[in-house]
């Protein structure tokens, strides 16, 4: 491949990243305007609505974020009265999460998907396409002059 062709191809790929990032940012703006909460907070509400009494550890795992990050997001939702924390009657060490009536109302008007555009799109890819994309992204990340691996455990809406 000629240098000019490679340069043109890299610019085409760059434009595709712009489409992805811009679309994701616009979706999160729509969520905030419609719901008054961040995209990551909306995803938390959705997960808690699917599984009442969900614990913070399991919630963090479902969102693929660090547990301390998840705890901070949950505490903000508790402070706003959208999440209710209750100790288990069976095991006092376990704290389960549930939604307030206001949170249920937010979920009804929220623009979907609650988990965000990118996770939904990734789930729609075939296993072979997803594997190929993963390999390519590993290679791309390897070429970055500067990188922060801790960002992998933060919600996209909070970057």
TrEMBL record:
Molecular-function GO terms, alphabetical: DNA-binding transcription factor activity
Ranges that cross the membrane: none
GO biological process, one term: response to stress
InterPro entries: HTH_MarR-typ, MarR/SlyA-like, WH-like_DNA-bd_sf, WH_DNA-bd_sf
Pfam family, one: MarR_2
Highest taxon in the source lineage: Bacteria
Annotated HTH marR-type domain residues: 6-142
PANTHER family (UniProt xref): MARR FAMILY REGULATORY PROTEIN, TRANSCRIPTIONAL REGULATOR, MARR FAMILY
Protein name as it appears in the record: Transcriptional regulator, MarR family
